[in-house]
Amino acid sequence: MATDDRLQEYRKKRDFRRTAEPEGEDEGGRRAGDGATRFVIHKHDASTLHYDFRLEVDGVLVSWAVPKGPSTDPRERRLAVRTEDHPLDYIDFEGVIAEDEYGGGTVLVWDRGTYRNLKEPDGETMAEALADGHLTVWLEGEKLRGGYALTQTKMRGDPRNWLLVKMDDSEADARRKPTSTEPKSVLTCRTLEEIAADA
Ligand code: MN
Asked: Could you tell me the residue ranges of all domains in the chain?
């Protein structure tokens, strides 16, 4: 599917005269120099606080809303609700979305970096893994590193329901609680409150 078609739902939900979020017209957006694929985790203080986990796949950011945020403990299973694909230039979006707009509230870049598909080179592409409802990725972020699995569970009959689980590898750590101990933006070192105050 062309990038433009994949961003239809994203654009339909937003009034770009009223939100500073990117429209995603710059096809492809900025790319990492070495061709590595990128990820970002936004902390989003909307009607309820959640984390948006986004992976660059074929020219868009495939996205899930994770109410409790990611864990570094392999025993923790975190609900991840698939949301609409976002444009690539959303990757460094940080700021305040007006209260009466879709997703109204403060957005902070909680973590970012590159990832690789653990099923490649012999297994599935990311697009195939998405369609099959099971991805495994290795993150190289500033806060999160190591393997993470995303599995579509269709809990309560809803195909949007996935689970995000830390894989049991050298980067797993049940004692770390990065969502509590490392709350600031990796982009600007600001807290949600500081971003809101600066807006
Ligand atoms: Mn969100």
From this structure: 3-198
